Amino acid sequence: MLALPLPLVLLLVPAVLAADASYRTLSTASNPDWMMKVPDSASLASISIPGTHDSMALFGGDLTQCQENFGASGDTLTAQLNAGIRMFDIRLRVNEGNTFTVHHGAVYQNANFDDVLRKIDQWLNAHPSEAVVMRIKQECTGDIGSCADADGQASFVDIFDTYRNNAPAAQRRLWAPSVQRNSAAPTPTMGEIRSKIVLAVLHGAQGGRTDQYGLAQFSGWNDGNSAWVQDNYNVPNTGAIATKRDQVRRFLDKTNAGDQSAIYVNFCSGSSLFAQPWQVAAGAGGTQGVNPFLLIYLGQGTDVHAEVHRTGIVMMDFPGGALINKILSFNARL
């Protein structure tokens, strides 16, 4: 019998998807109107916000799925919103007819940008006290493992502007200062953005920020880390999950000790061929995952580590209900 290398054997073993308070239990959290209690005067930078990395990555198997599947065509966004998620990471491919479809790498996620806008529009209509922050990325690089944009179409930014100017849901919901090509927006207060979608940044296919779209603070947010972003997304193997945990912890400490007028975005996600998204989130091979680690860390007091008085925006794969609730609990101080 042919002996397979250990990493390949591990890839062939079915994923063990045991849910717990920190992992794959999104629906156990119910926080549809939590921003109602946030004062209008509160800066977006002061608010602790749960978010999802690759928010609509539901299909393609363990290598590409990043979130629990509550339905295609944007239904999963509704479930996330009801749980309390308020930042989305949306990855788009240029499709025929100068339209956007949602992708994770080469895998179409059974949704279009129209679905994203429509679902958020409907939800905000029912929950006008709330606001959504969004990161948009041009997903297709044309490289192996990625997708390629459709030929003969307008540029990514021209298509985005067409949605902004013509899609009724976009006209109602996009916070205008954040979606201008030539002028970045200041960090808003809660009162300025209720019932709106705030574009944090628009990234090109190679990760660089595109023009001036988004918030001025994120002018240096390129691929991976920046002054205000921790996104060490390459976790080469399951043993390296411990390093990823430490990166999340250190950035959380920076969020609390650093500039309190700035928004910090902390990605808990990471992956590679030998450390799939669910493994980084939940743990694998005896290594604790980022999600359970973070839930424990946020629950500890100053007798264990430096005070945590805000979390910034925490971008997660497969978040559990208790972890979402814990992040939101820090807003009681506002």
TrEMBL record:
Q: Which domain of life is it from?
A: Eukaryota
**Coiled coil stretches, renumbered:** none
Q: Name one GO biological process term.
A: lipid metabolic process
The signal peptide annotation in the UniProt record is 1-18
Q: Where is the Phosphatidylinositol-specific phospholipase C X domain?
A: 40-202
Q: Which GO terms describe its molecular function?
A: phosphoric diester hydrolase activity
Pfam family name, one: PI-PLC-X
Q: Which UniProt keywords apply?
A: Signal
Q: Which InterPro entries match?
A: PI-PLC_domain (IPR051057), PLC-like_Pdiesterase_TIM-brl (IPR017946), PLipase_C_PInositol-sp_X_dom (IPR000909)
Query: Has keyword Signal?
Result: yes
Name of the protein: 1-phosphatidylinositol phosphodiesterase
Q: Please name the source species.
A: Mycena belliarum
